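*** Fold description ***
***
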Amino acid sequence: MSERPPRIPTIDLRPWLDGGDEERADVARTVDRALRTAGFLLVTGHGVDPALRAAVRAAARRFFALPVAAKQAYAARVGGRGWLGPGAEANGYSEGTETPPDLKESLTFATDEPFEDPVVNAEWYAPNVWPSEVPELRALCEEYLREMARLETLLLSLLGQALGLRPDFFSRHMGHPTYGFNINWYPGTDVLGEPRPGQFRIGPHTDFGTVTILDRQAGKGGLQVHTDDGGWQDAPHDPAALTINIGDLMARWTGDRWRSGRHRVLPPPLDAPAEELMSLVYFGECTPGTLVESVPAPVGRVAYPPVDSHVYLREKLDSITVE
């Protein structure tokens, strides 16, 4: 009896980049299988320098260690640019669940090139805000975001082939994409206090866009993923790997062939209340105005009404904002 493949496999991207047709087809089949069950997978061979990942974290940690009054100068709303302090977000709201605010702080950045359409520009572009107290953060984040854009394009081409469609089926909608980039700091109870009932570092939710690329740290109060047959389970961790999950728009695009990966981040554990974690989270999106239409059967399973990608994204971002 063959061993059952893991719900969340680790996939080496090097055969996809350098292998022959058979190796590439094998990678595509594995990706399709993983995204049908949990909406998550891990990737190695991605080419993102671990030293860059560590340097972004170290610089961000210097910002989060500043006094609240200093960080307040960079305060932003969800979907903006700057600092999201404790109590700004409650991701469980996106599922219609009234949860306490998430136990985290974030530095948030987004699209760095303005659009030609003034209406699109007014809603989806603003200059990123870089803390003067940590001047090295800007160059590090800009380098990291270039790497994320490269990896996102690669992944979208792989996803097109995994569906048996043209490789540019998704990537052709990336002429001038928006994106979100959060550096999430999850301090211990010494900083944010004891969790309230039903309170998480990030409440249960799905992401909203196309693909999310996550650089995470292992922890007892870490990432959990939900599957229909397994319920909530700790996500696998490999320090060399990046975690990839599918967002709502990609799930709609595939007619629910692929799952929008439901997940949460646990609160600080009772036996390690001072645990501190930091995640680098890149939220992939597409060009504003993209019409997301479900691919028909036999590829897709459900025919969703077509939706404007950024009308959908705005509604979701508004839904998790704590007023």
Observations:
- The first strand starts at residue 10 and ends at 12.
- The domain at 10-319 is CATH 2.60.120.330 (Jelly Rolls).
- The chain is about 30% helix and 20% strand.
- The radius of gyration is 19 Å.
